[in-house]
Amino acid sequence: MKKDVDTRNLVLLETPDGSYTFALPESNETYHSVFGAKTESEHIYIQNGLSLIAQQNIHVVEMGFGTGLNALLACRFAVLNGKNITYHTCEPFPIHANQLPVPKFIQNDKPLEDYWRQIHLAPWDELIPVCPNFCIHKHPIAFEYYEPDMQADIVFYDAFAPAVQPEMWQAQMFKLVFNYLKPGGLLVTYSCSGIAKRAIREAGFITKRIPGPPGKWHMLRATKPYTLEF
Predict the structure, then answer these.
(1) What is the DSSP code (8-state) at residue 52?
(2) How many separate helices (H) and strands (E) can be counted in the chain?
(3) What is the pLDDT of residues 159-180, one digit of tens each?
(4) Which CATH number belongs to the domain containing residue 52 in this structure?
(5) Rounded distance between C-alpha atoms, residue 198 and residue 20, angstroms
């Protein structure tokens, strides 16, 4: 998250798919798409990221816990697909749980609403089981200070836009990610800007531009190449 964000000034917005996002008036930025927060997250991080991981046990790292939407959708994916997900997320400026209403799209789905509450009420800096298929560890630190204890299969890179948070779109940040991803591991992000593509490629990734969610032309998926053995 941006270093100087004051979460007390966030403006809650309902999006067309029954999910919520927050606007930051001082920077004209939002946490998720106003065209549909859930739709955006599902398209980028689940359909074009998590669903491509074949193995049973998956280690996810997220840059920016934000509203917890990506974590909730990853939890739902684990339950529906019989996967076991360990989810690490870094957020130095958490939104207080009482600022977050229950999203409308889960209000008639009691198990999913229970997962949502458990994700948000889980203590910080502890690995907490949400359900048999999903554990979460919320780290109250900036992403660059995260030190993983295992290699990740996929990284959800959900920083604010390069114009708002340029320090998070430097090659050095993506080199950190590159180093703790498994060979063949994925990085997915909503940004397809030239700044993002150049920095991600400089870090050693192979990038692919793919169609974006509603309101956005493209997104990026990057792969850590396998090391050739001789």
Answers:
(1) G
(2) 5, 11
(3) 888 888 899 999 999 999 999 9
(4) 3.40.50.150
(5) 31
